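Collaborator request, handled under Task 6.
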Amino acid sequence: MKQKSKHTLKSFATVFTVAILFMSCGDGYERVGEEAVKPLFPQGVAQNFTLTYTETVEAMSTQDSANSRVVAVLSSPLSEDFDNQAFKFRTFPEGLQVDFYDEKSQKSVIVADYGIVYSQTNLIDLRGNVIIKSHDGKKLETDQLYYDRKNNWIFTEAAFTYTNPEDGTVMDGEGMDFNKDFTFFKAHKTYGLMTIKEEE
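C-alpha cells returned to the collaborator:
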C-alpha cells in the first residue's frame, strides 16, 4: 500500500514539474515594427470588379417610381473587401478607373495604380500615377489624390501638373483642390514654368 502511494506521489510530482516547465516556456519575445502589426485578411475578394453609383433625379415616392441617373462607375481588375474591420474599407491593389458623369452625361475619368475606398467616410484615396481627364480635355497628373464622394470634392497635397487646352496653359504646383467638373479649382502653391498659348 505504501509502495502504491509512493508511486502515485511520484507520478503527480512528474506531471506537476512538466506542467510548470510548459508554463514557463512562454513566448517572451517583444514584437516591434512590422512584426507587431497583426495581419489583415479581407472578407471577400472580387475579380473584374465594377461598382455603379447612382442618384435619383427626383424624390422617391412610396411606389419607388422615381428615375435615377449614373453619377460614377468604379472598375478594377481586383478588389479586396475589408468590411470585417472596425474601420471599413475596400482596396484596389491592381489599380482602378473611376468614370464620372455630370448632369449632361459628359464623362470625366480618373485612373490610378492603387486605391482605397473608405466606406464610413465616403473618401477615396488614389495613389501612383493618378491622372484625371475631364470631358473637355483638361488633365491633372499627380502621385496621390483624394476624392470626397459626399461633397464631390477632389484634393491633393502632392506635386501636380495641370494642363488646360482651352487656354493653352500648363501649370506645375503643390497642393490643389477642385470640384469634379474642373469649373472651380484652387492651387495652393505654383512654381516652375507656366506656358500660355498666344492668340494669333
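The cover message to the collaborator said: "The first helix runs from residue 2 to 24. The radius of gyration is 29 Å. Please let us know whether this matches your experimental observations."
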